[in-house]
Amino acid sequence: GNIAIVEDSRTDIYIATYSAKMCKLNYSIFTSGEDFLKSSEEFDLILLDIYLPDINGLELVRKMQQKGKHSDTPILIISADESTETIVKSYLMGVDDYIVKPFDSKILSAKLSSLFRSAKYQEIIQENKYREGRIKLFNEMNIALAHNLNNILSSLTLNINYIETLCTAEKGKERFNYIYKDIDRIKNILEKLEKIKKSGEIPLEKYIDDLDMVKLE
Predict the structure, then answer these.
(1) CA 186 distance to own-chain centroid
(2) Residue 201: which domain range?
(3) Which of 81, 175, 188, 212 is the most buried (most CB within 10 A)?
(4) What is the pTM of this model?
């Protein structure tokens, strides 16, 4: 995991980096809110001081929300401000946790671990929702595709059988063998579509430009 430490106090930076190491988290340090906003890095957690030299931490949270930056990233406030008003305001703004300075590195490590687990759990939930959506969409496409292919296949087979009875040349019959092979390929695809629909497992393989393509043959 990667954590952003937005803090200007050397002492608190030391404790924060030590806690991050204890949780086996990578970290980047920003001593001002402006530097943090300019960063293009992606983070799993944000450790944020309220009283930064250039901006109030809660104002920084508001700016992130306006820009849609790190909108889903858990935020842990670290501040010497222990007033109920500030703490409640922080939670109402969407901050995930609040710890009052001075703080113990063990407590900070525990909070970081808890938030990181929570963030990973949310990622899993979102991934499952995304996958369920893809499976639902694929099944809907599967039903429509299978129906249309079956209609085409039935008509094709019927007409080929009729034409074959009228054809006596060996070369003509050889061509019909190729057509029957293609019909078998279509049947194979339909069978795989049916298996995918029943199992819910979509076999994907990497294709051009890293697109995920459904593997049916």
Answers:
(1) 34
(2) 127-214
(3) 81
(4) 0.56
* CA 116 distance to own-chain centroid: 16
Cis? peptide before 102, omega within 30° of 0: yes
Helix (H), strand (E) at residue 102: none
Give tens-digit pLDDT for 182-217: 777 777 777 777 776 666 665 544 434 444 444 545
Q: Cα–Cα distance between 87 and 79 in angstroms, integer?
A: 10
Domain boundary among 71, 88, 103: 103
Q: Which helix (H) or strand (E) holds 99?
A: strand 97-100
Quick one: 91 and 19 in the same domain?
Answer: yes
Predicted confidence (pLDDT) per residue in 100-110, tens digit = 988 888 888 88
Establish if 115 belongs to a structural domain: no
Q: Are residues 78 and 134 in the same domain?
A: no
> Would the pLDDT of 171 be above 70?
no
Distance CA 84, CA 87 (A): 5
Domain count, the chain: 2
Instruction: Establish if 147 belongs to a structural domain.
Output: yes
